[in-house]
Amino acid sequence: MKLFTTLIQRVTALMVVLVIALGLNAADRTFATIAEMNAATDLANGDVITITSDVVVEYIMESYYVLKDKSGTATCVNYDYYFKSFQEQRLAGLEEYPETPPVKPGDIFKGYTAKVTFSSNMLQLDPDLDMDYLEFVGFTAEYAKTNDYKPATTKVTIRQLLDDPDSYIGKVVSLDEATTVNAGFSAYLVQGTDTLKNFRISGLNSENYPNNLIINQALCMSKYGGGCKLELTMNDYTLGAFTNIKALKSASVTENIPLNLNVQVLRKEVYEGKTYITVMNGSGKTLINYSGIRILLNAENDVDKALKVGDYINLKTTTATLSASKADGAYFTPSLLTLDEHETILVSAGEVEYLPIDPEEIFMLSYYEFLPVALDGYVTLTGEPTAEQKEHNIAPATLASIYGDLSMILLDLTYMPENGSKFVVTGILDVPLWMGKANKTTIVPLSEKGFMADSYEFENIASLVEFGAPISSVVNYQLKNAVTITGVETIRPVGDEDQIQRVIFVTDETGSLMLKGSTSCKVGDAISEVSGYYVAAVATTILDGGFVNFGAAEYLELDTTGVECVAGAITIEPIEVTIAQLIASDEYASKLVKLTDFTYKAVEEVVQDETVMRHFIYQGTDSMAVDASFELQEDKSEIVGNYYLNGYYTSVIPVVKAGNPVVVDDVMTDNTVFVTNNTIYAQDAEIEVYDVMGRILAIGVNAVSIENASQMVFVVRTKYADGQVFVTKVANY
Predict the structure, then answer these.
(1) DSSP 390-451
(2) Is 112 helix (H, G, I), strand (E, B) or coil?
(3) CA-based, 20 to 30 A from 42: which of 140, 265, 306, 711?
(4) Which pairs with CB-CB distance under 8 Å and at least 24 residues apart come from 34-43?
(5) DSSP string spanning 117-166?
(6) Which residues are bridge partners to 231 per DSSP?
(7) CA 207 remoteness from chain centre
(8) Which of 442, 421, 417 is nearest to 432 (CA)?
(9) Is the distance from CB of 299 to CB of 274 less than 8 angstroms?
């Protein structure tokens, strides 16, 4: 049957040749050299060409292989859909055909014949393959006896490939060290500031690409839409120095690994007379962007001996050894990197930052081993430790999420406070050296700061701010004494990515603070039982050229369940400042300030492809944004308001009512009022809408249309069945 099939195929091939010879479908072309063929301007799809001179196989890449004249004068790319499987079968060494070795670089084709195909403007030659007898049809091959053939490559840079791709398409090229960047299901190749976005290593998922490599040989292919795509095999590159721990752990190398790692030291420990350090690197705000590893220092240099937790260091070597992590049923063995002779450079000292993690994620050690985390939940000791656990100061514990979910963990007790039974914990996700492997994650706090109670009380704003941010969002801060409201505001979003922010500015004798949340209390009231999650400030920076990168004020994510309006508000006098003072210092954040002697202007800006109106005051060359409600003031010679420090939205927000400047206790804002699609909404309320001159524009219940209004800023009066009345400024952009 196989012989009959083969005869049919060859008869069919003969008929195709006859058709070609008769000129019915395509031309039959003969060239002495590849260079002569490349010079032909009238080649067309379907032409059958023959090269009379011997050609040599330069390079093989899946279904592609590159040929050149033995003289080395030119190259061409050959493609056949079946060539990959054709080659795989020959590589299998079928007993039926021992005389057909796999095609390899260095093999010579005599009388090479193939059909012309143009793909993405690249000339390809499709040979005829006999898939039954695993032979080429129409020409013969002379197979090289060794595997040491080295193709002639053209040294290029990514910049050259970007600027002049046509000069390299179809050629075998080489590159000096470059960096790979994983981008989901693909990868980029980077040299300096130049990026090649079409890059592939056959046989590897992009997430497992080495992060630095030297490309010894690769095929430059044309891509759809222009430019070139670089393709190579796993045998075509030499590892450059690893700079990324995640890439190192994903690579398939274990010996003689080159490193050039910039890492942060998380822990240093001695076990059985050997020194180990735990390090990490990565960037971003989420845990998945980082990777950690434990390192055994077989040879400890002077810098190693002085390392401290938090230090940023550079590690260089060419002989590192990696023992990869592995899972065996319920047990996990962590990865270990071993360094003999190496160079350590101390870059800087720093503090370890802990990234939040959900309780159910703590067992994902294959992703998060050794990383510093803030547990989103409460830890309590449970059960009796084993004798071995007691020896190493470790005990079983329960991690309870805020939703009541429970996880069993082990907790290092080295820095645990003597008092208390319920804690919020930060530490690294570890498998202690003495364990070797484990079926539970051990949390290892790195200092006394790794333990906090679940809640804290403070006498005033100053003591709260001085105490600093908690280690986890589940820690609650509470002010024992009442504070005075100096502003209640709704910050409207700019663009689809932002959300409405409802903020309350409060003050006591010691300082000012911003609360994020809503309240029915009005400006001038005192409020008590203020509590929530505290977030520390981000400092303003002045960039090159004088550009101001505004930071963000500290704030409390307000728990509104117990907040009450109480008597005893203090008198708040605004602080007289200049715009220059506001820019130069964050000390005025969330405080009531007063500015005079300025000019005012409304300016159109394009944000996220949307034109918005922003409002500014000017003093000389200094400028500061103000809230749109400033338009409500008839007298614009001064502004009294709260300094809202929050990045792009940084502004002075006036304390105003329609038509008049007002004192702190003169406004009651309805935080339920909102505007969308040119309609103002207030559920279960009578609504009156006024312009900035106090003229009534519309009246309604629950919702009022402002579609026909020409202005963008309105004063909304809402009245409810219980008699409460609110006045709210609303902007409709």
Answers:
(1) HHTTEEEEEEE-TTS-EEEEEEE-TT--SS-SEEEEEEEEE--TTTSSBSSPEEE--SGGGE
(2) strand
(3) 140
(4) 34/67, 34/68, 34/69, 34/73, 34/74, 34/75, 34/76, 35/69, 35/73, 35/74, 37/76, 38/74, 38/76, 38/123, 43/116, 43/123
(5) EEETTEEEEE-EEETTTTEEESSEEE--S-S------EE--HHHHHH-GG
(6) 200, 219
(7) 14
(8) 442
(9) no
Distance (Å, rounded) from C-alpha 558 to C-alpha 552?
17
At a CB cut-off of 8 Å and minimum separation 6, what does 534 contact?
464, 469, 470, 477, 554, 555, 556, 557
Q: Rounded to 5 degrees, what angle do the CA atoms 392, 396, 399 make?
A: 130
SS3 at position 217: strand
pLDDT in tens, 442-496: 999 999 999 999 899 999 999 999 999 998 888 999 999 999 999 988 787 666 5
Cα(705)–Cα(675) distance, rounded to whole angstroms? 10
Residues of the chain with CATH 2.40.50.140: 154-239, 241-453
Question: Alpha carbon of 262 to those of 243, 259, 344, 564, 620: distances in Å?
Answer: 7, 9, 10, 51, 45
pLDDT tens per residue across span 308-341 = 999 999 999 999 999 999 988 889 999 999 999 9
pLDDT band at 644 (very low <50, low <70, confident <90, very high): very high
Second CATH level (architecture) for the domain 154-239: Beta Barrel (2.40)
Residue 586: count of CB within 10 angstroms of its CB: 19
CATH of domain 2-142: 2.40.50.200
Rg of the Cα trace of the chain?
36
Region 566-581: mean pLDDT is 90
Q: Which CATH architecture has domain 241-453?
A: Beta Barrel (2.40)
In this prediction, residues 142-163 reach a mean pLDDT of 91
| Start and end residues for every CATH 2.60.40 domain found in the chain | 674-731
Is the CB of residue 47 less than 8 Å from the CB of residue 30?
no
pLDDT at 695 (0 to 100): 64
| β pairing state of 28-31 and 48-51 | parallel
Residues 6 or more apart whose Cβ sits within 8 Å of residue 712: 613, 628, 731, 732, 733
Residues 519-547 pLDDT 10s: 878 888 899 999 999 999 999 998 877 78
- DSSP lists the bridge partners of residue 122 as 119
Say which DSSP state 242 is in: B
Residues of the chain with CATH 2.40.50.200: 2-142
Listed in order, strand segments (DSSP E) in 510-609 are 511-516, 526-528, 530-535, 541-542, 548-549, 555-558, 564-566, 575-576, 592-596, 599-607
Element (H, E) at 365: helix 365-368
Q: Does domain 674-731 have CATH number 2.60.40?
A: yes
Of the candidates 645, 642, 536, the residue with the CA atom closest to the CA atom of residue 585: 645
Question: What is the C-alpha separation between 287 and 291, in angstroms, rounded?
Answer: 8
**Partner residues linked to 619 by β-bridges:** 622
Alpha-carbon distances, residue 729 vs 504, 620, 665, 683 (angstroms):
15, 30, 16, 17
Q: How far apart are CA 535 and CA 550, in angstroms?
A: 16
Return d(Cα 80, Cα 61) in angstroms, integer: 11
